[in-house]
Amino acid sequence: MRSTVVMAPEKVLLPPFQALVDEHWRDVARLARALAGPVDGDDVAQRAWEKAFAAYPGLTSAKNLRSWLLTITARCATDLHRARKPQRPLDEAPPVAVEGPDAADWPDPDLWQAVNELPERQRFAITLKYVGDLDHHGVAASLDTTPAASRRLVSDALAALRSKLGVNA
Q1: DSSP labels, 48-113
Q2: How many helices (H) and strands (E) would you count in the chain?
Q3: Is the pTM of this model over 0.70?
Q4: Which of 49, 60, 81, 98 has its CA 20 to 30 A from that of 72?
Q5: Helix (H, G, I), strand (E, B) or coil at 12
Q6: How confident is the model at residue 65 (pLDDT cuts 50, 70, 90)?
Q7: Which residues contact 111 (CB under 8 A, 6 or more apart)?
């Protein structure tokens, strides 16, 4: 009779979580605001940090922690969008003032309006690529797809933006 030896997973030497926060908080906040908007971006970033903190001790690799954090952030933004249910406007409700930057304060309000009008997966892919500064493998991991599909999503999003904004390639 053969005996099988089961090896316990090796402990990985991880930097302190605060060092991770100090190094990547701007990237997480920027991506969260880009994917969820200026109003919900801070909540998405906070939720991403909560999830990262809970999962951090169980990591089996310390490679590419930035991509790991940005993937969590993208998934938190997706969860936010999925949790929203279509709401009927109230007929007699007064308008609600919302704190946050005005679209005119953004570097290019027409561009961001066009980005917001893209289909969800294209919007996430182009935001992860250009705001999150991920390569196509990182975008693919965040969107749970292949690098080839990631390239296609980004390409289609760029084509749609060029068409909408009247920019020649």
Answers
A1: HHHHHHHHGGG-S--TTHHHHHHHHHHHHHHHHHHH----PPPSSPPPPP--S--GGGSS-HHHHH
A2: 6, 0
A3: no
A4: 98
A5: coil
A6: very high
A7: 161, 165
